[in-house]
Amino acid sequence: MGFREYLDNLDKKGLLKKVDVEVSKKLEISGILKKMEPTPVIFNNVKESEFRVAGNIFCTKNVIASYFNVEPTDIIPMLSKAILESSEPEVITNAPCQEVIESNVDLDKIPILFHCEKDGGNYISSAVVVTKDPEYGQNLDFHRAMQFSKNKFATRIVQGRNFHSFLKKNGELDVAFCIGNTPNILIAGATSVEIGFDELKIANALEPIKLVKANSVDLLIPSEAEFVLEGRVYLEEKHAEGPFVDLTETYDTIREEPVFEVKKITHRK
Protein backbone atom coordinates (compact mmCIF):
# COMPACT_ATOMS: atom_id res chain seq x y z
CA MET A 1 0.00 0.00 0.00
CA GLY A 2 1.43 3.38 -0.99
CA PHE A 3 1.31 6.57 1.06
CA ARG A 4 -1.48 8.09 -1.05
CA GLU A 5 -3.52 4.90 -0.98
CA TYR A 6 -3.24 4.88 2.80
CA LEU A 7 -4.44 8.49 3.01
CA ASP A 8 -7.37 7.63 0.73
CA ASN A 9 -8.29 4.74 3.02
CA LEU A 10 -8.18 7.03 6.06
CA ASP A 11 -10.41 9.50 4.23
CA LYS A 12 -12.96 6.84 3.29
CA LYS A 13 -13.13 5.78 6.95
CA GLY A 14 -13.63 9.38 8.07
CA LEU A 15 -10.35 9.35 9.98
CA LEU A 16 -8.53 12.05 8.00
CA LYS A 17 -9.15 15.64 9.08
CA LYS A 18 -9.07 18.08 6.16
CA VAL A 19 -8.04 21.71 6.59
CA ASP A 20 -9.10 23.78 3.59
CA VAL A 21 -8.49 27.29 4.93
CA GLU A 22 -5.16 28.90 4.06
CA VAL A 23 -2.40 28.09 6.55
CA SER A 24 1.28 28.96 6.66
CA LYS A 25 4.19 26.55 6.72
CA LYS A 26 5.72 28.83 9.35
CA LEU A 27 4.44 27.79 12.79
CA GLU A 28 0.76 27.44 11.84
CA ILE A 29 0.81 23.92 10.37
CA SER A 30 3.06 22.52 13.08
CA GLY A 31 0.94 24.17 15.77
CA ILE A 32 -2.27 22.69 14.39
CA LEU A 33 -0.67 19.25 14.10
CA LYS A 34 0.50 19.38 17.71
CA LYS A 35 -2.91 20.49 18.95
CA MET A 36 -4.72 17.76 16.98
CA GLU A 37 -2.23 14.95 17.68
CA PRO A 38 -2.70 12.02 17.07
CA THR A 39 -5.46 12.80 14.52
CA PRO A 40 -4.18 12.53 10.91
CA VAL A 41 -4.50 15.88 9.13
CA ILE A 42 -4.10 17.04 5.55
CA PHE A 43 -3.69 20.72 4.70
CA ASN A 44 -5.06 21.48 1.24
CA ASN A 45 -4.22 25.18 1.07
CA VAL A 46 -0.66 26.05 2.08
CA LYS A 47 0.08 29.77 1.83
CA GLU A 48 3.62 29.48 0.50
CA SER A 49 3.29 26.44 -1.75
CA GLU A 50 1.13 24.72 -4.37
CA PHE A 51 1.71 21.41 -2.59
CA ARG A 52 -0.34 19.94 0.24
CA VAL A 53 0.97 18.85 3.64
CA ALA A 54 -0.04 15.71 5.55
CA GLY A 55 0.89 15.14 9.18
CA ASN A 56 0.21 12.99 12.26
CA ILE A 57 -0.08 10.07 9.87
CA PHE A 58 2.00 7.40 11.64
CA CYS A 59 2.57 8.95 15.06
CA THR A 60 1.44 6.16 17.42
CA LYS A 61 2.22 2.48 17.88
CA ASN A 62 -1.46 1.68 17.54
CA VAL A 63 -1.62 3.28 14.09
CA ILE A 64 1.51 1.47 12.92
CA ALA A 65 0.19 -1.83 14.28
CA SER A 66 -3.14 -1.25 12.53
CA TYR A 67 -1.33 -0.64 9.24
CA PHE A 68 0.20 -4.13 9.45
CA ASN A 69 -2.97 -5.70 10.93
CA VAL A 70 -1.17 -6.74 14.11
CA GLU A 71 -1.35 -5.83 17.79
CA PRO A 72 1.08 -3.20 19.15
CA THR A 73 2.82 -5.94 21.14
CA ASP A 74 3.51 -7.78 17.88
CA ILE A 75 5.51 -4.97 16.25
CA ILE A 76 8.91 -6.03 17.62
CA PRO A 77 8.44 -9.75 16.80
CA MET A 78 7.24 -8.73 13.33
CA LEU A 79 10.35 -6.60 12.83
CA SER A 80 12.65 -9.35 14.09
CA LYS A 81 11.08 -11.76 11.62
CA ALA A 82 11.51 -9.24 8.80
CA ILE A 83 15.22 -8.85 9.59
CA LEU A 84 15.70 -12.62 9.45
CA GLU A 85 13.63 -12.94 6.27
CA SER A 86 14.83 -9.76 4.52
CA SER A 87 14.57 -9.90 0.76
CA GLU A 88 15.59 -7.95 -2.33
CA PRO A 89 12.93 -5.50 -3.53
CA GLU A 90 11.89 -5.44 -7.17
CA VAL A 91 13.62 -2.72 -9.20
CA ILE A 92 11.53 -0.90 -11.83
CA THR A 93 12.34 1.75 -14.44
CA ASN A 94 9.26 3.99 -14.31
CA ALA A 95 8.16 5.21 -10.90
CA PRO A 96 5.56 7.58 -9.43
CA CYS A 97 8.26 9.43 -7.48
CA GLN A 98 9.76 10.58 -10.80
CA GLU A 99 6.60 11.79 -12.52
CA VAL A 100 7.96 15.35 -12.25
CA ILE A 101 11.68 16.16 -12.42
CA GLU A 102 12.87 19.59 -11.28
CA SER A 103 16.40 20.49 -12.39
CA ASN A 104 16.14 24.12 -11.29
CA VAL A 105 16.13 23.54 -7.56
CA ASP A 106 14.10 25.95 -5.43
CA LEU A 107 13.40 24.52 -1.99
CA ASP A 108 11.17 27.50 -1.18
CA LYS A 109 8.51 25.99 -3.45
CA ILE A 110 8.22 22.97 -1.14
CA PRO A 111 6.24 23.36 2.12
CA ILE A 112 9.17 22.57 4.42
CA LEU A 113 7.85 23.45 7.87
CA PHE A 114 9.13 25.99 10.36
CA HIS A 115 8.09 24.05 13.47
CA CYS A 116 8.80 26.13 16.60
CA GLU A 117 9.42 29.84 17.13
CA LYS A 118 13.12 29.54 18.08
CA ASP A 119 14.05 27.05 15.34
CA GLY A 120 17.03 27.90 13.17
CA GLY A 121 15.06 27.51 9.96
CA ASN A 122 12.64 25.36 7.98
CA TYR A 123 13.21 21.70 8.82
CA ILE A 124 12.78 18.33 7.17
CA SER A 125 12.46 15.98 10.12
CA SER A 126 10.96 12.71 8.86
CA ALA A 127 12.64 12.01 5.53
CA VAL A 128 14.26 8.63 5.01
CA VAL A 129 17.81 9.20 3.79
CA VAL A 130 19.41 6.81 1.30
CA THR A 131 23.16 6.84 0.78
CA LYS A 132 25.83 4.39 -0.34
CA ASP A 133 29.39 3.44 0.51
CA PRO A 134 31.59 1.79 -2.16
CA GLU A 135 32.51 -1.00 0.27
CA TYR A 136 29.35 -1.57 2.30
CA GLY A 137 26.61 -0.62 -0.14
CA GLN A 138 23.40 1.27 0.60
CA ASN A 139 22.22 2.55 3.96
CA LEU A 140 18.82 3.83 5.10
CA ASP A 141 18.56 6.27 7.99
CA PHE A 142 16.93 9.41 9.40
CA HIS A 143 18.70 12.77 9.50
CA ARG A 144 17.01 16.08 10.13
CA ALA A 145 17.94 18.88 7.75
CA MET A 146 17.65 22.65 8.18
CA GLN A 147 17.15 24.67 5.01
CA PHE A 148 19.36 27.76 4.77
CA SER A 149 19.18 28.61 1.05
CA LYS A 150 17.18 27.70 -2.05
CA ASN A 151 19.30 24.60 -2.64
CA LYS A 152 21.13 23.77 0.59
CA PHE A 153 20.53 22.27 4.01
CA ALA A 154 22.64 21.86 7.12
CA THR A 155 22.23 18.17 7.97
CA ARG A 156 22.49 16.82 11.52
CA ILE A 157 24.69 13.73 11.28
CA VAL A 158 25.18 11.94 14.59
CA GLN A 159 28.64 10.52 15.19
CA GLY A 160 28.79 6.73 15.23
CA ARG A 161 25.94 6.22 12.78
CA ASN A 162 26.66 4.47 9.49
CA PHE A 163 26.11 7.68 7.53
CA HIS A 164 28.74 9.44 9.66
CA SER A 165 31.19 6.58 9.15
CA PHE A 166 30.62 6.59 5.38
CA LEU A 167 30.97 10.38 5.15
CA LYS A 168 34.13 10.46 7.27
CA LYS A 169 35.63 7.72 5.11
CA ASN A 170 34.70 9.21 1.71
CA GLY A 171 34.63 12.96 2.35
CA GLU A 172 31.41 13.44 0.39
CA LEU A 173 28.46 11.22 -0.52
CA ASP A 174 25.53 11.10 -2.91
CA VAL A 175 22.26 11.11 -1.00
CA ALA A 176 18.52 10.99 -1.57
CA PHE A 177 16.13 12.42 1.02
CA CYS A 178 12.83 10.55 0.48
CA ILE A 179 9.69 12.21 1.87
CA GLY A 180 6.24 10.63 2.16
CA ASN A 181 6.83 6.97 2.97
CA THR A 182 4.83 4.11 4.43
CA PRO A 183 5.58 2.45 7.83
CA ASN A 184 7.54 -0.47 6.39
CA ILE A 185 10.11 1.97 5.00
CA LEU A 186 10.00 4.22 8.07
CA ILE A 187 10.52 1.32 10.47
CA ALA A 188 13.33 -0.11 8.36
CA GLY A 189 15.08 3.27 8.34
CA ALA A 190 14.86 3.43 12.14
CA THR A 191 16.24 -0.09 12.65
CA SER A 192 19.83 -0.60 13.78
CA VAL A 193 21.49 -3.51 11.99
CA GLU A 194 25.08 -4.39 11.20
CA ILE A 195 26.95 -2.19 8.76
CA GLY A 196 26.47 -3.35 5.17
CA PHE A 197 22.92 -4.59 5.78
CA ASP A 198 20.56 -2.81 3.36
CA GLU A 199 17.54 -1.77 5.41
CA LEU A 200 15.36 -1.60 2.30
CA LYS A 201 15.42 -5.41 2.34
CA ILE A 202 13.79 -5.24 5.77
CA ALA A 203 11.15 -2.87 4.41
CA ASN A 204 10.44 -5.32 1.60
CA ALA A 205 9.99 -8.18 4.06
CA LEU A 206 7.54 -6.11 6.12
CA GLU A 207 5.54 -5.28 2.99
CA PRO A 208 6.71 -5.64 -0.63
CA ILE A 209 8.11 -2.46 -2.16
CA LYS A 210 9.51 -1.43 -5.51
CA LEU A 211 12.68 0.57 -6.00
CA VAL A 212 13.85 2.77 -8.84
CA LYS A 213 17.25 4.21 -9.69
CA ALA A 214 17.44 7.83 -8.62
CA ASN A 215 17.44 10.36 -11.43
CA SER A 216 20.83 11.97 -10.83
CA VAL A 217 22.66 9.86 -8.23
CA ASP A 218 23.61 6.18 -8.17
CA LEU A 219 21.10 5.08 -5.54
CA LEU A 220 18.03 2.85 -5.44
CA ILE A 221 15.11 4.64 -3.81
CA PRO A 222 11.49 3.84 -2.84
CA SER A 223 9.43 4.22 -6.00
CA GLU A 224 6.32 5.66 -4.31
CA ALA A 225 7.90 8.40 -2.20
CA GLU A 226 6.12 11.72 -2.59
CA PHE A 227 9.30 13.80 -2.89
CA VAL A 228 12.93 12.88 -3.45
CA LEU A 229 15.68 15.44 -2.91
CA GLU A 230 18.83 14.23 -4.67
CA GLY A 231 22.28 15.67 -4.18
CA ARG A 232 25.51 15.47 -2.26
CA VAL A 233 26.61 15.88 1.36
CA TYR A 234 30.05 17.36 2.03
CA LEU A 235 32.05 16.59 5.18
CA GLU A 236 34.24 19.69 5.04
CA GLU A 237 31.58 22.22 4.01
CA LYS A 238 29.77 23.16 7.22
CA HIS A 239 26.91 25.43 8.27
CA ALA A 240 25.25 26.20 11.59
CA GLU A 241 22.39 23.75 12.29
CA GLY A 242 19.79 24.49 14.95
CA PRO A 243 18.27 25.25 17.33
CA PHE A 244 15.59 22.58 16.88
CA VAL A 245 13.14 20.92 19.27
CA ASP A 246 14.08 17.23 19.27
CA LEU A 247 12.28 14.12 20.58
CA THR A 248 12.79 15.24 24.18
CA GLU A 249 10.67 18.33 23.36
CA THR A 250 13.58 20.55 24.38
CA TYR A 251 15.82 22.68 22.17
CA ASP A 252 18.90 20.95 20.85
CA THR A 253 22.06 23.02 20.62
CA ILE A 254 23.50 24.77 17.56
CA ARG A 255 26.29 22.84 15.81
CA GLU A 256 28.37 23.22 12.67
CA GLU A 257 27.10 20.37 10.48
CA PRO A 258 27.79 19.07 6.95
CA VAL A 259 26.04 20.79 4.06
CA PHE A 260 23.60 18.90 1.81
CA GLU A 261 23.48 20.46 -1.66
CA VAL A 262 20.27 19.55 -3.51
CA LYS A 263 20.91 19.13 -7.22
CA LYS A 264 17.64 17.58 -8.39
CA ILE A 265 14.10 17.27 -7.03
CA THR A 266 11.68 14.61 -8.24
CA HIS A 267 8.12 14.20 -7.05
CA ARG A 268 4.71 12.78 -7.78
CA LYS A 269 2.08 14.77 -9.65
Helix content estimate: 10-25%
**pLDDT < 50 stretches:** none
Task: Indicate the mean pLDDT.
Answer: 97
Distance between the termini: 18 Å
Identify the CATH architecture.
Roll
Oligomerization category of the chains in this entry: single chain
Task: Please give the CATH class.
Answer: Mainly Beta
Q: In brief, what are we looking at here?
A:
The protein is of the alpha+beta class.
Topology:
Elements: H1 3-12, E1 17-19, H2 28-36, E2 41-43, E3 53-55, H3 61-67, H4 75-84, E4 90-92, E5 100-102, E6 123-124, E7 128-133, E8 137-142, E9 145-147, E10 152-155, H5 162-170, E11 172-179, H6 183-189, H7 199-206, E12 210-213, E13 220-222, E14 227-241, E15 244-245, E16 251-252, E17 255-267
Parallel strand pairs: 1-2, 4-12
Antiparallel strand pairs: 2-3, 5-17, 6-9, 7-8, 7-11, 9-10, 10-17, 11-14, 12-13, 14-17, 15-16
Helix pairs in contact: 4-7, 6-7
List the defining traits of the structure above:
269 residues, Pnp Oxidase, Chain A, 9-stranded antiparallel sheet, 7 helices
Question: Can you characterise this structure?
Answer:
It contains 7 helices and 17 strands. Helix 4 (75-84) crosses helix 7 (199-206) and helix 6 packs antiparallel against helix 7 (199-206). The protein has helices at residues 3-12, 28-36, 61-67, 75-84, 162-170, 183-189, 199-206, and strands at 17-19, 41-43, 53-55, 90-92, 100-102, 123-124, 128-133, 137-142, 145-147, 152-155, 172-179, 210-213, 220-222, 227-241, 244-245, 251-252, 255-267. The mean pLDDT is 97. By secondary structure, it is α+β, with helices and mostly antiparallel strands. The protein has a single domain, classed as Pnp Oxidase, Chain A (Roll), CATH 2.30.110. 22% of the residues lie in helices and 31% in strands. Strands 5, 6, 7, 8, 9, 10, 11, 14 and 17 form a 9-stranded antiparallel beta sheet that branches. The protein has a 3-stranded mixed beta sheet with strand order 1-2-3, covered by helices on one side. Strands 4-12-13 form a 3-stranded mixed beta sheet, with no helix packed on it.
